[in-house]
Amino acid sequence: MMTERVILITGSSGIAAATAEKSVQSSDRVFVVGNAKEECAELCARLDNSAYYVADVAHENEVRDAFAACLSQLGRLDAVFNVAGISGRSFGDGPLHECSTEAWNLLMSIHAAGTFFACREAIRHWLSANQEGVILNTSSVLARFPESTHFATHAYAASKGAVEAMTIAAAGYYAPHRIRLNILAPGLVRTPMSARAQSDPEIQRFIQHKQPLQPGFIEPGDIASVACFLLSNASAAITGEIVRADAGWAVTG
């Protein structure tokens, strides 16, 4: 009888929540790591075979404790989806000449360092247990396909670019250990983080053209479907890939 897989997901809303829901529907167990206790509790209350731990991924000690809690409570770890993130616009993110140091440091601490901390904990565990595993890290279409009118947030793009570079380097190094690492790069998704864009009529018109496969904002469940595939054994031959789920953003002028 196949052992239920355990997937650790950072974040508790938007894409993270949708992926947790789909994972449980596929008989996986889910361990949610988020910094909003009520949101984590509400999510896990509607999911069977789930648990959560409150932590800020920007703090390595909290990430270490979260992974220890996952192993203690659910007994194993098979996959990690690093999706926790923020928009830095309210902290001063923007074009380089306008970008605040606070925004730069905050985005790097959450996206780049936070992803690094989680990857390191997972890989250390799998190496010590001689176990295969899979990591899916979250980037953004903006890391490689910028848009200067509505989304000139250069610290955000840089932090996601760091995630991509680290993931590809690590994928090559750990492939002989049967540890896979891939990157999911969404377009503009209907999540709490994109609330500003969702309320802007000009961006709404822009996105109808820029993401024509929807058209408009991508639903979190659509991104979750891609994530679940990349986290599953169905993608066992895939590592070191950047998979765009952008509804046509990158190929639309």
Secondary-structure map:
Elements lengths: L5 E5 L3 H12 L3 E6 L2 H9 L4 E5 L5 H15 L4 E4 L18 H29 L3 E6 L15 H21 L4 E8 L8 H4 L2 H10 L9 H12 L10 E4 L8
Helix pairs in contact: 1-8, 3-4, 4-5
Model description:
This protein is α/β, with parallel strands linked by helices. The chain has a single domain, classed as 3-Layer(aba) Sandwich (Rossmann fold). 44% of the residues lie in helices and 15% in strands. The protein is built from eight helices and seven strands; from the N terminus they run βαβαβαβαβαβαααβ. Helix 5 links the parallel strand 5 and strand 6. Helix 3 runs parallel beside helix 4 and helix 4 packs parallel to helix 5. The chain starts with 5 loop residues before the first strand and ends in an 8-residue tail after the last strand. The mean pLDDT is 96.
Q: In angstroms, what is the radius of gyration?
A: 17 Å
Largest sheet: 7 strands, parallel
- Strand elements, count: 7
Query: What's the CATH topology label?
Result: Rossmann fold
CATH H-tier superfamily:
NAD(P)-binding Rossmann-like Domain
Number of helices: 8
N-end to C-end Cα span: 50 Å
Query: Which class do the helix and strand fractions yield?
Result: alpha/beta
Name of the CATH architecture: 3-Layer(aba) Sandwich
Strand content: 15-25%
CATH class: Alpha Beta
Cross-sheet strand order for the largest sheet: 3-2-1-4-5-6-7
Low-confidence stretches: none
Determine the mean pLDDT.
96
Order of helices and strands: EHEHEHEHEHEHHHE
Helical fraction equals 40-55%
* Domain module tally: 1
Give the overall shape, derived from the CA principal axes. globular
